[in-house]
Amino acid sequence: MSLAHLTDRFGLPPAAPGQLDRLLTLVAGDPHAPTTVRDPEVAVDAHIADALVALETGALGDAETIADLGSGAGFPGLVLAAALPAARVALVESSGRKCAFLERAISAMGLENAEVVCARAESWAAGIGWADVVTVRALARLNVLVEYAAPLLVDRGRLVAWKGRRDAEEEADGAAAAAIIGLEPVAILPVRPWDGAEHLHLHVFEKVRPTPKRFPRRPGIAAKRPLHASS
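Predicted structure:
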């Protein structure tokens, strides 16, 4: 798929195609880019289209603040920053090496609405109650993701989580954790960001109650002792 096709499909702003092209060039040429998908002809689907498909959920259209957790190589965060120039995007990443790459990418793309937060989500004190939307791709199971996201979200804010094939057990765990943490699942959307993509889904949760004061827990605890219905 081409950037021109994606521009038409998603109604991208005029500066976005050039910014995304520079991102693809950086990923292809930077030996420290934290991704194994470097070929621009592949990455335009696997990274760019895959990120932009979140625009079809309706959860991001009026977002003023977006926190992308575990940003890694910047997908979906950098792509959404290009697509939504009116939104402020925080790229939350705990690895110093990956943070350095994200800083290079922001500079290469000429983004003025993105910043790197080099910290774990649980340690980002300034992010509490900051985000209209939290995005997360390929980071953890749903019950862990909702715990990461909930403290960062404003009232009625939304979590958008990228997942592959549906897993009934994981979805049940996610819903149970969401009930504890103040979120509720509102949609599981099958998506087809490029021709040939299969079994991809976006899980959308909404913050419907205040997050209990005992959250966020200490870094690492959400994954080590994930929430369940009896927590």
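Summary: The CA atoms of residues 187 and 204 lie 5 Å apart.
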